[in-house]
Design the sequence.
């Protein structure tokens, strides 16, 4: 693990595994019109943060952490899972 704050950016907590990481290392989820959107880190509205790995997404879903973080009833469907997995793959390709 690198020391906290080594990126110099804001720190966020993954709602899945509770790990604290720089916001640019996490995936931001927001709700728009009742649908979850996967957004790039931008300070717009209420967001939930997840590590770019499916295990964290599953944990967050199981604990209903997304509902709590986003203050909304979040619809988890296959499409959302696929999109999240897609973002994970993109991140891996970059790293
Ligand atoms: Zn995590």
Sequence:
């Amino acid at each position: 693990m690198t020391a906290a704050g080594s990126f110099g950016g804001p720190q966020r907590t993954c709602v899945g595994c509770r790990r604290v990481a720089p916001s640019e290392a996490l995936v931001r989820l927001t709700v728009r019109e009742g649908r979850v959107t996967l957004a790039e880190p931008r300070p717009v509205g209420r967001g939930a943060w997840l590590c770019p790995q499916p295990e964290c997404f599953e944990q967050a879903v199981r604990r209903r952490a997304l509902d709590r973080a986003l203050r909304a009833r979040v619809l988890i469907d296959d499409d959302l899972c696929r999109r999240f997995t897609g973002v994970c793959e993109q991140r891996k390709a970059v790293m």
User: Anything to note?
Assistant: The mean pLDDT is 86. The helical segments are 54-62, 65-70, 78-94. The two ends are 16 Å apart (CA to CA).
